[in-house]
Amino acid sequence: MGRRPQQSGPALQGQIITINARQLTEHQDRQISEFLQNFGTSELAIFTPDGDAERSLYAGSLEHAFQLAGWHVRRFAIDRFERREPGVLLIRHSGRDTPDLRAIKQALLTAEVPHREIHIGDPAKAGFYKRGRGVETSVPVIFIGPAA
Questions:
Q1: Distances in Å between the alpha carbon of 143 and those of 9, 17, 34, 37, 85?
Q2: Would the CA dihedral through 91, 116, 65, 22 be positive or negative?
Q3: What's the average model confidence in pLDDT over 27-37?
Q4: Around 129, how many Cα atoms within 13 Å sit in the side-chain half-sphere?
Q5: CB-based burial label for 84 (10 Å; 0-12, 13-18, 19+)
Q6: Residue-level pLDDT at 60
């Protein structure tokens, strides 16, 4: 996975903070979008921890690839998530409307983006599916874990 330094806005006393953020390469971006175009448009939610600039920048890179394929992507910052696994985490829950993650998994495999599927059990306890400020349980969810 290519890593290019990303810069944020001014920090304390006019200094610039440099963040070494994960980012998809142009090739990975194109592979994901081209693969997903075969499946029509769909919805996706990407969650990052609140206040984590590196993970937010990486989420933006993934968001761009899915949007190129015509997918509707919503981004959320979450206060906490108990799991600590690194990388791109595809969320599977035990609710009735479990989303089909096969197309997303295959797109990430095609682009050689490290990822894993994790099972969170009851979706009501996870924090992603809160009524009025989350997503429906039928929407695929990606959580951006820490860098490996």
A1: 25, 24, 22, 22, 10
A2: positive
A3: 96
A4: 22
A5: exposed
A6: 96
d(CA 70, CA 109): 19
Closest residue by Cα to residue 102 from 17, 36, 26, 4: 36
User: Which pLDDT does position 4 carry in this prediction?
Assistant: 41
d(CA 28, CA 15): 32
> pTM value?
0.83
pLDDT of residue 111: 97
